Amino acid sequence: MRKLLYLAVIERLKQIKDANGEPAIRFFDLWNEQVTFIEQEEPFELPAVFIEFLPIQWQTSNDGTQTANVQFRLHIVTPFNGKASDRSIYQKEALELFDLLDSVNRVLYKMSGECYRSTTRVRSDTNHNHEELIESLETFQVCVADISGRPSKQG
């Protein structure tokens, strides 16, 4: 289920295009503290999105189906494009980050697939303490069903 969800999120995010019609997000991976250990990481293109699955609480029905409201956090890493202050000549570029975050929400809203449905954003954390890279956090929730634990029908 997590594999399907991970791949589906990436496919949706690839729909976001920049002004030239190219994919706006240039790199995807599972979250592994990449920003914290940036000097030790292999270089990656920006903007980048790292997907983190938060702890999952499963409920099991009598037929073995497990369901959960899964939360996943997107670590959206962008370059610092200058100050957004009222008189900054970089204000427009600096605020483009918020356009990207809005686009992420738009393409993931109500995303549904084989074992998941009704993706919604539940939290946004804006980074106000950054240097060259800005790490914005967007948390989403999706209802999932995992039937892999059900006994198979043998006839």
What key phrases describe this protein's structure?
elongated, 2 helices, alpha+beta, 6-stranded mixed beta sheet, about 160 residues
Task: Note down, in words, how this protein is organized.
- Strands 1, 2, 3, 4, 5 and 6 form a six-stranded mixed β-sheet that branches.
- The chain is built from two helices and six strands, in the order αββββαββ.
- The chain has helices at residues 2-13, 91-108; strands spanning 27-30, 48-53, 59-60, 66-79, 116-125, 133-146.
- With 155 residues, the chain is of the alpha+beta class.
Describe the structure concisely.
The chain contains two helices and six strands, in the order αββββαββ. It is of the alpha+beta class and 155 residues long.
Count every helix, treating DSSP H or I runs of 4 or more residues as helices.
2
Distance between the termini: 27 Å
Which runs of at least 5 residues are low in confidence (pLDDT < 50)?
none
Largest sheet: 6 strands, mixed
Q: Which outline best applies?
A: elongated
How helical, in percent, are the residues?
Answer: 10-25%
| Total count of strands | 6
**Cα-atom Rg, whole angstroms?**
18 Å
Helix and strand composition category: alpha+beta
| Share in β-strands | 25-35%
Q: Average pLDDT across residues?
A: 89
**Order of H and E elements:** HEEEEHEE
